[in-house]
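Incident log, support desk, overnight shift.

02:14 A customer reports that sequence design results differ from what the structure should imply. Their input is reproduced verbatim below. On-call engineer (initials T.W.) acknowledged and began investigating.
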C-alpha cells in the first residue's frame, strides 16, 4: 500500500525546487538591469550550480540537493539559493536536538527521517542594500511531520521605511492563513535571531516558525508556500530602492563589521547549520550562508 506521505514529500520537494528556480531567475534579472549606479560597469553575475550528495554511515545513498551560488555580481556580492532532499536515520545527537523541542513518538525505535527545503542567504555589494535570509522546509519521521521556515532582513545601515515595507509584505502573505500567525511568528523571529553573547539582534527581524503542524497538511503546506512566495516582493523592493546609492569606505566598514555578527550567529546558534553538519550534508552547502568577507574589531 502506498504511503500518502510519499506523494506529499514529492509535492513539497518539487515546490522548493520551483521556488528556487523563480528566485534564481529574478536575481539574475536584477544583475542584468543594474545598468546605472555603483558597479554597473562590472559583468552581470550568474549562478554557478553544483549537485550535492550525502551518504549514510554504511555508504548508502542518503539524498542531496542543488547548490546555486552567485559571486561578485553587480548587485550581489555573494548569494546562495540551495535546495535539498535528504533522508536516512537520525543519529543520537540529531534525535536529542529534535526531541528537546517536541515529543516525537517512536523516534528512538524507528529513527528514519526525510527532509526537504530551500535555503537562501544574500550578501550585497552595496552597504545600503540589506542582506537577507529565507528558508522553508518540510520534515518527516514515522512519528510526525512538520514545516518550518521564514525570512528576515539584515541591514547594516537601517532604513525605517525598508523595515516597515518588508514586514508589511510578510504580514500580507501571512494574514489569509490566520490573523494570529504574523504577530506570533514575528515575535518568534525576534527571539530566535537574537545573539545572546552580543545582547542584540542580528537584523531587523521578519518571521520564523518551526515544528509547525496543525494536523492539516494541505493547509500547513499552503501557508509554507505563501511564506516562500512573499520573499521576492518583500526583498526586491528594498533592492530597487537602494542599489543605485553611492557608498563610502566608512559604509563598507560598517557592512563588514555587521557581517561578523551574521557569521557568529550562524556558526554558534543556527539550527539549520547544526542539523546539516550533524547529519553529514555537504559542508560547503551547509556553510553557504557565510559572507565572503567580514571584520571583527
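02:41 Re-run completed on a clean worker. Output:
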Amino acid at each position: 500500500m502506498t504511503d500518502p506521505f510519499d506523494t506529499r514529500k514529492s509535492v513539497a520537494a518539487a515546490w522548493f525546487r520551483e521556488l528556487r528556480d523563480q528566485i534564481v531567475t529574478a536575481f539574475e534579472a536584477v544583475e542584468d538591469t543594474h545598468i546605472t549606479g555603483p558597479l554597473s560597469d562590472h559583468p552581470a553575475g550568474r549562478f554557478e550550480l553544483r549537485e550535492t550528495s550525502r551518504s549514510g554511515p554504511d555508504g548508502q545513498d542518503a539524498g542531496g540537493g542543488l547548490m546555486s551560488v552567485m559571486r561578485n555580481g553587480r548587485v550581489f556580492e555573494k548569494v546562495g539559493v540551495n535546495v535539498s532532499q535528504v533522508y536516512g536515520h537520525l543519529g543520537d545527537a540529531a534525535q536529542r536536538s529534535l526531541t528537546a523541542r517536541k515529543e516525537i513518538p517512536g523516534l528512538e525505535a524507528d529513527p528514519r527521517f526525510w527532509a526537504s527545503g530551500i535555503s537562501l542567504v544574500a550578501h550585497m555589494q552595496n552597504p545600503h542594500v540589506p542582506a537577507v535570509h529565507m528558508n522553508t522546509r518540510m520534515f518527516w519521521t514515522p512519528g510526525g511531520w512538520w514545516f518550518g521556515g521564514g525570512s528576515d532582513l539584515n541591514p547594516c545601515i537601517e532604513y525605517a521605511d525598508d523595515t516597515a515595507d518588508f514586514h508589511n509584505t510578510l504580514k500580507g502573505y501571512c494574514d489569509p492563513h490566520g490573523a494570529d500567525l504574523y504577530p506570533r511568528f514575528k515575535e518568534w523571529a525576534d527571539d530566535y535571531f537574537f545573539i545572546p553573547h552580543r545582547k542584540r539582534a542580528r537584523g531587523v527581524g521578519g518571521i520564523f516558525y518551526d515544528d509547525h503542524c496543525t494536523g492539516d497538511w494541505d493547509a500547513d503546506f499552503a501557508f509554507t508556500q505563501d511564506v516562500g512566495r512573499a520573499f521576492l516582493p518583500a526583498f526586491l523592493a528594498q533592492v530597487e530602492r537602494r542599489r543605485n546609492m553611492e557608498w563610502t569606505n566608512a559604509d563598507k566598514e560598517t557592512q563588514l563589521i555587521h557581517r561578523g555578527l551574521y557569521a557568529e550567529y550562524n556558526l554558534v546558534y543556527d539550527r539549520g547549520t547544526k542539523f546539516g553538519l550533524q547529519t553529514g550534508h555537504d559542508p560547503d552547502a551547509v556553510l553557504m550562508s557565510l559572507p565572503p568577507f567580514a571584520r571583527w574589531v
